[in-house]
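Postdoc handover notes: sequence design on the structure in folder B. Input tokens:
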């Protein structure tokens, strides 16, 4: 079994999609909603789910969106 300590646990949203984000008109800040799927899991899993939900187009990753997301 590989050492999974390189991938720490944390609270992850598990459903971080554009539909679960609001933008405050007053402050311009992003507000994340709908934590019904949230769980304690590997933070890398949360990142992977989010990258998939925000950057895949026509079944392929849009690398420009991946770079923007990770900045």
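Designed sequence:
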């Amino acid at each position: 079994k590989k050492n999974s300590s390189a991938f720490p646990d944390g609270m992850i949203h598990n459903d971080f999609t554009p539909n679960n984000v609001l933008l405050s008109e007053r402050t311009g800040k992003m507000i994340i909603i709908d934590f019904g799927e949230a769980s304690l899991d590997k933070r890398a899993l949360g990142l992977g789910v989010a990258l998939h939900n925000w950057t895949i187009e026509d079944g392929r990753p849009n690398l420009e969106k991946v770079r923007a997301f990770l900045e």
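Context for whoever picks this up: The chain has two helices and six strands. Don't rerun without checking with the PI first.
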